[in-house]
Structure formats: structure tokens, C-alpha cells
Predict the structure.
Amino acid sequence: MDAVVAACREALARPGPAIVLTGAGVSAESGVPTFRGAEGYWTIGAQEYHPEELATLVAFSQMPWEVWAWYLYRRGVCRAAAPNAGHAALVRWDAALPDRFALVTQNVDGLHRRAGSPDARLHEIHGDIDLMRCARDCTPARDPIPTAVPAIPRGGAVPEAIRAELRCPRCGAMARPHVLWFDESYDEPRYHLDTVSRLAAGAALVVIVGTSAQTSLPWHVVALAARNGAAIVDINVEPNPFGDIAARSAGAIRAPAGEVLPELVDRLA
Ligand code: NAD
Ligand code: ZN
């Protein structure tokens, strides 16, 4: 920890954004499961699906109500969870560095927002499980999932009466979860691609927390920042590809985010 704190101090003495890039690991201590392990699977009929198969436009096109059921189950889990000490520490860090802090998250659980991270500096690059949008794309606008839509128990189906609620309020087409699927591309209006790329290209520091490095924009952020000479830190309970990069830069810490982030932020503030 001492070496990482020293490297962060040195990086913060240089100009440029300080980016924190979070993944599912930052919410694990809130009880939101990551995509790894038994909780990541979902059974439809006799078939067991992995998130990489279900979180796709192809799956939604073929079996929209089954995909909606999985999302409404996970939305229930996210809404029942509360932010943890890691989320809270990032709110304190934002307040300490408001002119240069940026929080880039792959999480769709809304816990950074609920902890108090301001929207102006929060980039939800994979969307928000509490929102829906038109599946026919009549507008990029998002709407909250109506309050009448309940959580679905594990393995459950979307009740017939609820299906009418999951429609675009503008054109009446089916609505879809406002999340980036594995077979879709990042863009600026929905997922802040250009904003995040611009921040990364000028970054002084990138602190990566709880991600297994399996999606492309995080790699792009780390590559752009490294090219700018940014210090890279990785916080994760397990080894991962970003940990290897961080070990050659400002350092990797193998411990839970809810323990590491409060200490790191308090020592830097
Ligand atoms: P992932 O599930 O692939 O990896 C999670 C990572 O967190 C692993 O490397 C694991 O070792 C680490 N981890 C677990 N507990 C930790 C802890 N207490 N402290 C620090 N690290 C910990 O998740 P990902 O890399 O974010 O990517 C998966 C995709 O899944 C993303 O696209 C994301 O949108 C989606 N997802 C989101 C949520 C959420 O919103 N909370 C949950 C699951 C998946
Ligand atoms: Zn529409």
C-alpha cells in the first residue's frame, strides 16, 4: 500500500484527470454477484445460459421475455443492495478532486449514484439496469422502468400483465434494458465513449477496481492513459490482466475493494 500511495501522490502532482475504473468487484461486498461463479448462470427451460450468451442483442431478438426476466431478477438484486465502504470512499475522493476526478464504471447496478457520486463525473459505460429504452431505437432517450414492474424471482417469468408496461412510451414498440450487450458497440450518446476516451488520453492516474478485463472500453482507457504516461493501479482480490500492467506501473493490491479504497482515499486526501 505504501508504494501505491507514493506513486499516486506523484501522479497527482502532474496535470490531468484522475480516473477510477470500476467493475463488478466493487459491488461484490454489497451482495451483487459478479458474472463469475454459480450466480452468473440462468436457466431457461432445460438450457443453462452464461451471461455472455444472454446479455446479447441476438438473445433478446430470439427470446425477449426470457432476457427481460433475467434482467428483472438482477434488477431486484441490485435494488435490494446498499452501497459499501468502497463506493463511499469514491464519493469522498470525488469531493476532494472535483475538477479532475472521473468515475468510469462497467456496473449497471446504480450503486455509485446511490452512494452519492455526482452524475456530472460518473460515466456508466455499460448502462443502468434501472432504465429502459426503445428497442426499435425511435429515440436514444431512456426511461425509468415503471414502478409497477416487480422483481422476478430466480428462474421466474415476466407476468403477462406486466409485459404491457415494458413498452416505449413514445412509439409503443417493445422496450429493452438500457445496457450495452456483448454483441453491441459503445457510443457517445448512450455510453459516453468519446468523453471517456478524451479523459483517458490526458489522464495522470487510473485506478482500476474489481474488473476481470473482459470488455473493450476498459482496455482502451488503460491503453490511452498508459500512452500519456499515467500511473496505473489495480485493486482486485484475484490476479487479472490489468494487475500485470499495474504491477509494472504504480502497483497492484490484492485485497477487497471495500477495505482498500477507504484507506487509499484517506491517505491521499
Ligand atoms: P466480472 O464479473 O467479470 O469480474 C469481477 C472481478 O471482480 C473479478 O476480477 C474478481 O476477482 C473481482 N472481485 C470480486 N470481488 C472483489 C472485491 N471484493 N474487491 C475487489 N475485486 C473483487 O466483472 P466485470 O469485469 O465488471 O465485467 C463483467 C460485465 O458484467 C460488465 O460488463 C458489467 O456490466 C457486468 N456486470 C455488472 C454487475 C454490476 O453492475 N454490479 C455485476 C455483474 C456483471
Ligand atoms: Zn420507440
Notes: The two ends are 15 Å apart (CA to CA).
